[in-house]
Amino acid sequence: MNILYDERLDGPAPEMDRAGIRDALLKAIPGMTLLHREEDMRPFECDGLSVYRTLPLLVALPDSLDQVQRLLVECHRLGVPVVTRGAGTGLSAGALPLTHGVLLVMSRFSRILEIDPEARIARVEPGVRNLAISEAASPYGLYYAPDPSSQIACSIGGNVAENAGGVHCLKYGLTVHNVIKVEVLTIEGERMTLGSDALDAPGFDLLALFNGSEGMLGVVTEITVKLLPKPEVAKVLMASFDDVEKAGNAVGAIIAAGIIPGGLEMMDKLAIIAAEDFIGAGYPVDAEAILLCELDGVEADVDDDCETVRQVLEKAGATGIRQARDDAERARFWAGRKNAFPAVGRMSPDYYCMDGTIPRRELARVLKGISDLSERYGLKVANVFHAGDGNMHPLILFDANREGELAVAEALGGEILELCVEVGGTITGEHGVGREKINQMCAQFRPDELATFRAAKAAFDPHDLLNPGKNIPTPARCSEFRTIKSAAADTAPGAQQGGQE
Amino acid sequence: MTNATTPRDHDAGADLAERIRQASAEGTPLRIIGGDTRYFYGREVEGSELSTHEHRGISFYDPVELVVSVRAGTPLAELEAALAEQGQMLPFEPPRYGIASTVGGMVATGLSGPRRPWAGSVRDFVLGTRVINHEGIEQRFGGEVMKNVAGYDLSRLMVGAQGGLGLITEVSFKVLPIPGATQSLHLELSLDEARLRLAEWGREPLPISAAAWLDGALHLRLEGGPSSVAATRARIGGDDLDNGFWTALRDQRLPFFSEGRAPLWRLSLPHRTPALELPDVDERLMIHDWAGAQRWLRAELDADTLRRTCQAAGGHATCYGPRPADVEPFTPLPEVLMKYHRNLKAQLDPKGIFNPGRLYAAL
């Protein structure tokens, strides 16, 4: 089943009159940058999941709210779909353009409007980079907690659209826990405030609904986030294990000891070797798995907790435990983890990053399952894991230049996600559904549940003009998905299920 | 995993679904109740009573996963006892308005207690919900894992929606360990001094987990590791305060809440909002909880004036009662926002059977 927009499964994609629509938009919004030449639009044909590419109808780069508003009004009037894009670092093709839609690029909205250290909030435009908020807050001893690995480049607007996470989620929460207010434009161009500067707002919690809605309910034009005082200290322990399961059990044992680490990450052998080769983080390359456990807070408590964690790790069978001696070593430990994706990228022409979340107790079973699938499909898989919150990032190594290998990687990835659902988990912890996991949504939700999602969307966008085709599959797509699945199940057990396309 | 099953556990999901199918077929509005302890929190609903209290029990609890799933009719006290047995808690300290308070009511109203500014609110700890929709079908959104962005976040949308979008039958929560040390303090400070101190402390990583000013003193709670709590206590000074103070504040059992006959108002404001300019209101007679972000006021005053003043400050005001006939419990919504509330209600509850009019007349 094709990931790219497929009229047969995703709904009509009428032929659009590019010149006519361009004229109408330029007339309605004089002065707005509107790209229409193929060579100008080429850089916008994909997001961070670059294996999927589509050239949009037009690319709009507004630089004022008034322009965004008029663009939406005009597109609504003309019935032209709008795909909103932030920094384009998303990993699920959530900002993949449509041939029959305008790509609305919010990158010019990059001003930090206000840092209020007394209120401990930052008010920013959606194109502001995630890390830029923490940098601006730093002089006041404050920071913005969610830290996706792409934080140097990803924008806060995209973070809201995806409900982005990071390595500190277990203790500090996701984007939805750290955004207190957003200004929104509806597809009809109406302005609406969700949330407030207080700790709650009357009415339904539409702020929660908009977080992670993948640009399908409205366009976020301003975001107020809460800022936290920087922890007094952060210390990190690295433990090595000769067995992945032991490492998994150690994670549970740390939490059972009543400790919520600031970060708790796990990497398997292939990921360790890749990271060590790339960064020289000082990882033990003979280990089957390592755990990185960061404890942060007030120094006296952190020291107590480090001692407790050390004892827990020893009891769990760690073959080696090291505590970073200083901030430089701590940064090096983290550098290996934060660069794990590009490090794995050096081992293989291409890699494909998965994002399932599982109950932690199922870790051993899922890793075993991934290893079996890896063998069956003949592609290597490196595992990087936000172990504290159960969010796995298996990285499938493949070569897109080899005929059919992308399809095999996709099929392997799809099976990994379905395995996550089977053990009580989810197909996406923080990267979003986008186009990438549109088929697996049919495995996670029943048709009637998907219908409820569509009803919620219809409340805000009845004509399905905002990012159509993403996040929620159509009944036609799910019906085909189920037909293919049951046909595959009917064939002999262990049959090659790759290349379903 | 622990087996927390008690003899009273019962899955009444099928009966509830049947009642909803009937109500949907007949177009009969339903008045949803759990323990009915939060009846005062909203407009009155005309409808046939639908109670969740038979649908109870903890269906899943794994302390190591920090996840618990609970049927809506489970008494809140029962859930909190099961968590405490494992050294865990609901970090948002939901108020309990009576022993009959249920988990479903807690989620439907979305109210949080003294720890809210530091730990987060009810919705922040909801991981998933099961909801019976207008067709009488139980649906599952979110789940029992910490991170889940598949589909729209309908589970958090249900928090505070007061049952108006469907019947919540089961909720999964993230839970946390009870802090290792707790120390409550009483500091004689004027309201202005307390504000200054809190602003200063708020920018430091201090283990503060509750702060309320009333009766001429700042009441403070420190929670965390024994070392940091002891060090902070030594630095801040003040007198020891019984930890039970926070329970009384949380459950509205302080004398303030039962004295007099004037309506009780909850003002939700940005925490640094200075004294409100309201005629005949003495800020020193109010409770300033949540470091100033939640203020309790007992007064006979013009609701529109109060609401305008709170809105100008970036907040809103809710009337807990006794409520004059012409006063809405919740601050009216701006027109555009109300339009999308109505759309959402029409989509998820097309026949208007779920608690119609509970939040606003039009919903």
TrEMBL record, chain A:
Residues 52-230 form the FAD-binding PCMH-type domain. Its cofactor is FAD. Its EC number is 1.1.99.14. Keywords: FAD, Flavoprotein, Oxidoreductase. The keyword Flavoprotein applies. It comes from the Bacteria. Pfam families: FAD-oxidase_C (PF02913), FAD_binding_4 (PF01565). One of its GO terms (molecular function) is FAD binding. This is Glycolate oxidase subunit GlcD.
Automatic annotation (TrEMBL), chain B:
Residues 1-178 form the FAD-binding PCMH-type domain. The keyword Nucleotide-binding does not apply. One of its GO terms (molecular function) is FAD binding. Pfam families: FAD_binding_4 (PF01565). It is an enzyme of class 1 (oxidoreductase). Its EC number is 1.1.99.14. SUPFAM superfamilies: FAD-binding/transporter-associated domain-like, FAD-linked oxidases, C-terminal domain. InterPro entries: FAD-bd_PCMH (IPR016166), FAD-bd_PCMH-like_sf (IPR036318), FAD-bd_PCMH_sub2 (IPR016169), FAD-linked_Oxase-like_C (IPR016164), Oxid_FAD_bind_N (IPR006094). Keywords: FAD, Flavoprotein, Oxidoreductase. The keyword Oxidoreductase applies. This is Glycolate oxidase subunit GlcE. The gene is glcE.
